[in-house]
Amino acid sequence: MDTRTLDAPSAPPRALRAPADCAPRRAAPVDKLVIEGGRRLEGEIPVSGAKNAALPILCAALLAPEPLELTHVPRLNDVRTMRTLLSQMGVRIEERAPGEVVLDASRIEWPLAPYELVKTMRASILVLGPLLARSREARVSLPGGCAIGLRPVDQHVKGLEAMGAEIDLEHGYIGARTTRLKGVRFVFDLVTVTGTENLLMAATLAEGTTVLENAAREPEVVDLAHCLIAMGARISGAGTDRIVVEGVDRLHGAKHRIMPDRIETGTFLAAVAATGGAATLTGARAATLEAVIDKLVEAGARIESSADTIRVSRDGPLVAANLRTAPYPAFPTDMQAQFMALATRAEGTSVITETIFENRMMHVQELVRLGADIEVEGSTAIVRGVPRLTGANVMATDLRASACLVIAGLVADGATTIDRIYHLDRGYERLEEKLAALGASISRVK
Ligand code: EPU
Asked: Pairing state of beta strands 68-71 and 92-97?
């Protein structure tokens, strides 16, 4: 490895700059979605692999010198960005068939995550733990601000330091090195999903036992743990707030299927509950989104589930429901905006409180453009249901806000045009195709 390069993060060598064709591919800025609202949704659609499980699991490939074979990998822009990042480090990546990706990290040449990529996708921070554990050094750009809030990474850094890493922050980069990470008991100050994932991955190759307390319990953390266990890691307690990892000297290749996306699932459930109609989601795991299902039922939807399908329908009225986002298993922040779209049309007043991110109400002003009656006080939105929304031009501000506007467009009378849908393409696979399969009138215009 050329350490001179790693010491000069502000000017990564040509090989580390994102070539034009592997800069995060996003819909051209002019792409828009046009929705003709007012149709009930009916039919059956499949659920994709989970974005927020795929991103850490792609990074887990860095931990082993043998291939990691993944199936059910969603084809979306954040996954493409992560693949670009990993391949710039020297990981060989092959997509054998749609959704089947093999990553070979037998050689990691550049343990570096440059600003150009990290700034487009905050989850790039997930390479820090695996790089440090396997290559014993890493330089990862600080993510910086993001639309939904400040989102610092202090817990990631603090945890790795507790494991013995030397970390400095210079020129906007986290520089980390170690002779070998050491097992430690670490208590997170707050529940962080990617923070837990980063330390979990780092701990698999540490010397001795690591105990992570106040760990995130999200199903995506559990899916990552399953993949790591298949690679030879010794992990217990994933899915609880105390994860114990006995470090091993090396991990090996494995095969893993990415879990179904619970937020995509919840988005479709909310869409059908909002428009009325009946739909079946196949390859869905109801047990991972109980809080969302409970709220949708409270709001008037009927939901039945089997081991891998969920059927949602609504014929009666939508009724108001209050909610508060919180770490799993409570109601996820990633479903707050979509639920708010539905609440705009419910009978009564819904009080929706966001507790995870400080700036995740940007969809409110766009919903108001569609005729919603919403007042925001701090991190709480008071949504008074109205009998109808009317189509308008609106602007997507982040991924889940985009999904919220799609749902609102589906229930609004007339045409809604959603601008800046590159946010949507970061995290939803073929969203408009799936909604069209349910009978929605939705099209992408260039
Ligand atoms: N936080 C800190 N310090 C840290 C880490 C987090 O203060 O070191 C704070 C954050 O600022 C935030 C809270 O802790 O207020 C929770 O953040 P968390 O770290 O859990 O979020 P994340 O790991 O960056 C993941 C998902 C998000 C999802 C959140 C919460 C991935 C790749 N991203 O982000 O997904 O909203 O957990 O569940 O897993 C999305 O998919 O649209 C999305 C934003």
From this structure: unpaired
